[in-house]
Design goal:
five-stranded mixed sheet; Transcription Regulator spoIIAA; alpha/beta
């Protein structure tokens, strides 16, 4: 039997929902699918969601995760919400730069700076 582990932790701040990826490695298709279901259900529960995705635990991810981030982004903006990414490992950030996703996503150093950016955007 495959080990089922929590994929995300969700915290509700004053002006944002913070989703922290729990796994160090997000590589397998089954893991990515489970993440998509978890995050999309959080998005669908809220209207006009300010979402912060915290990558503090993630050391490795597959390129399929980048596609997932694009789907998450599309869903958040369709609901007139805002999306922030934070705590991205420098090696992973290099992938964002190479693919120019750092120009598409609002990326912050930590949850605090991402949260503050949402306050100033209101």
């Amino acid at each position: 039997m495959a080990e089922i582990k929590p994929r995300i932790s969700v915290e509700y701040a004053e002006n944002a929902t913070v989703v922290t990826f729990v796994d160090e490695k997000i590589l397998e298709e089954t893991d990515i699918h489970a993440l998509q279901e978890s995050v999309m259900s959080v998005i669908e529960e809220a209207k006009q969601l300010n979402l912060i995705l915290d990558f503090c635990n993630v050391q490795f991810l597959s390129s399929a995760v980048l596609g997932l981030l694009m789907r998450i982004s599309k869903k958040v903006y369709e609901q007139e919400g805002q999306l922030r990414l934070c705590n991205i490992n420098p090696r992973i950030y290099e992938i964002f730069k190479i693919t120019r996703l750092n120009k598409i996503f609002d990326i912050y150093e930590n949850v605090k700076s991402a949260t503050e950016s949402l306050l100033s955007a209101d």
